[in-house]
Amino acid sequence: MRCAAVWIKAILLTTLLICPILAQVGSPIDPQRPRRESQVGPRERSEFDLERRMRDMRAQEESLRAATRTPPPVPVEPKLTSEARERVLRLRRLSPADTDRYAAFLKQERTGVFKLFPDLGCISKNVIRIDGECSRFVPMSSSFTFRTNLYSDEVYHDIHFERDRISSKSFFSQGVFVELGDVPIEGVDLSHPGVKFLVDYGPTTSPKTATEHMEEFRTGVESGGYKYADHINQRENVTYALRMIAYRLENGLKPLSADTTMNEMMFLSLSFDKRIDITVVFRVISRDEYGGLTIVWKELDRRDAPKIKFEKGRALRDFRPEAKGK
């Protein structure tokens, strides 16, 4: 956990340093492979995303070096060798049988398909283990966000796949799943009885109430014959729905400085994440030999992100139960 905390702090620090720069000039473009996301289809999307992640990692490290005139404490993420990169892209590649089966569905707006691989705990500091069980690990491919339709990380994901369980436990967010059963994803909309609870659920403005809600969803809430929780034990050929509420902070924050605490740094980084309230439906359509799940999805609803306000004098902390005592 200490390694994870240092790693996350490095991510946040480099993000806070570089995002104002990227907001002005955009992400660095590889002149050898100039492509735009709108020009690629589902089969090429993972390659485009990995290229983006690798470019941003290099830019973050360069920005941190320039800002501090010293090497960063740890890399933003362990660097991939050329061979490892090609392996990730190969394993992320979608099966034509899967994409062809949902070709008509994927022509609709706000739909997508991707592969998600289990996080086997193989990353520590700047090392990716490749021995034993970790020989099956696929880096940078265990977290995904529907809000931007991109692979993500443990801090700002919508879903995170760890072994046989998919959860939603990103910072200052509330993710709630429901299993709808073996029903065609094409027929699920906001009127589905299992989705109604998610749509009607009212976000809070209080950190105390948010914590109480998270406690409830950690064990599960029963309603109308369905169970709503912050995790699922995923199964093939089963359709699920997710309400992801990425809260915003209403309190003002001081600018980043040498005195900025870890908690303050976390909240400062919220401004660089796409904070919205989104409801999606997704279906696990296949599993490969590495445990990778092919997931097809569509967005059902999108709303402005609600805000949570801390009382004057109260320390800023995530409302998740796991964050207590940090």
What characteristics describe this protein?
alpha+beta, 326 residues, 31% helix, disordered N terminus, 16 strands, five-stranded antiparallel sheet
What features would you describe in this structure?
The protein has 326 residues and is an alpha+beta fold. Helix content is 31%, strand content 24%. The chain is built from eight helices and 16 strands. The chain has helices at residues 2-25, 42-68, 82-92, 96-101, 103-106, 193-200, 207-219, 262-268; strands at residues 111-116, 123-124, 127-128, 143-145, 150-151, 159-162, 165-167, 173-181, 221-223, 226-229, 231-232, 238-246, 248-249, 276-287, 293-304, 307-308. The strands form four sheets. The protein has a seven-stranded antiparallel beta sheet, sandwiched between helices. It has a five-stranded antiparallel beta sheet with strand order 5-4-6-7-11. Helix 1 crosses helix 2 (42-68). The chain is globular and about 55 Å long. The termini are close together. The model is unreliable at 1-7, 17-39 and 67-76 (pLDDT under 50).
